[in-house]
Amino acid sequence: MTTQTSSPAANAELVRAGFQALNAGDVGECLALAAPDLIINLAELPEPQHGRETWRQGFEMMRRAFPDLRADIEDMVADRDKVAVRVRFRGTHAGEFLGFPATGRTVEYVSHEFYRIADGLIAEEWICSDMATLLRQLS
Fold first, then answer.
1. Which of 81, 102, 83, 82 is nearest to 92 (CA)?
2. How confident is the model over 95-121, as pLDDT tens digits?
3. C-beta of residue 36 within 8 angstroms of C-beta of residue 77
4. Distances in Å between the alpha carbon of 95 and those of 56, 83, 134?
5. CB atoms closer than 10 angstroms to residue 139
6. What pTM value is reported for the model?
7. Tell me, what CATH number does 24's domain have?
8. Whole-angstrom Cα distance, residue 128 to residue 124?
């Protein structure tokens, strides 16, 4: 597979478009921006996860728990094939999440995320969310 290189600005715009689709709840558009063999690295898990379907399942779990979840990009840096973002998530805990029943509380937490772009798609992501802050707000 040959990897086309696009500009850092184009890569940043791709990631920005992904967050816009996430905020709109448009799972189809989010998945259209991801490579079929997307690699998902979550800080909490010892091994990477793979594929669009795995990503979709995570998206749907978050939407069930926080139906109004919104991501606001606070910082973004792009260099070569990588994009780094600091993003603030806010939403209402309206459904079960990791064993916590809905509380109706508004939650807010920060995530530091890195994306690798290949062939105009998000090929890999590294997600390091402040889960301690999120879980503290649910208990």
1. 102
2. 999 999 999 999 999 999 999 999 999
3. no
4. 17, 31, 14
5. 6
6. 0.91
7. 3.10.450.50
8. 13
